[in-house]
Amino acid sequence: MKKNIILLFVFASRMLAAQDLEITNWLDNKQCAVVMTFDDWLEGHEKIVVSALIEKKLSATFFVTLQGAQWKRNFFDQMRLAQENGSEIANHTITHPSLTAVSLEKAKVEIDSARKIIMDSVPGAECLTFAYPMGTWNPDIIDLLKREHIGARGVNQFNENGIHYDFASDSVDYFRISTVRVWHIVTLDKIAQWVDYAAKGGGMLTFMMHSVYNDNIAKGWDAMPEEFLTGMLDTLKSRQNKAWVTTFANAIKYHREKKASEIEFLGEKKGVKSYRLISTLNSEIYNQPLTLKMQKPTGAFVIHQGKKKMDYTISEDGLWIFFNVVPGNKEIKITLN
Question: Is it the case that residue 325 has pLDDT exceeding 70?
């Protein structure tokens, strides 16, 4: 009986110690995640959008339809540049068919072939996410995608009051992500409002865009002038205090990792508290750092994960610290001096 009481006490102590650390809902304790997605890989994406994102130090996801991209011989060059600068090159099939209107075998070829070509041609492209051509999908298509992808975006419109953190009750929900279609009837004020809706609900907001044009590049589907794109990027930049502007893959990874991770307290010795952030997901795919939150110690302290000294930020009220770690077997050590 006495032994059982001691074991229960040790277990309870470890549970309480683990609660010293908390995983925030989004990276750097942001209130929401915001993802810009550009479909098809059109001329304006190559000649306007990539350089604009780099200039503003923002990232986005390009869902590439390879057959449509072949209007230019060296179309992979700008994709590589986008990928190198933090954007994501992702899958939108070879020929952009409605996947529910072709055979399952044809759909498989469209999905798998596009993914392989992108990964072979764009160094660093994991090609883990997908956008449905024409917005059409069914359970069989989702099953095809789940073999090699972690999420997919449709064309169904968000509800302004429906951008909540708990948007995925199971793995299938990650393959039917809603979006906001951005075209000429959407104002920059409305873009700002959508970000505010997302911050209020704590969820993941995606914007869907197609053609971007200027005096030298013709209008296409859902035409957006270059000036509007610039204004949109500035609007998102101005809200980075509340919104994590990232890629579709990073946002999906973070959300899935947080749900599948827990903090394990390993013990304390000579002023050093040891923890481990463990996850049930495949670490070769799910390698997005998560942000941990803890109360700021009164004295000096140092944080390591493995042998790496971790940077941290302090909340405006000075009460909390935040630092980013990757789930896995490397111990997190907090040394109090």
Answer: yes
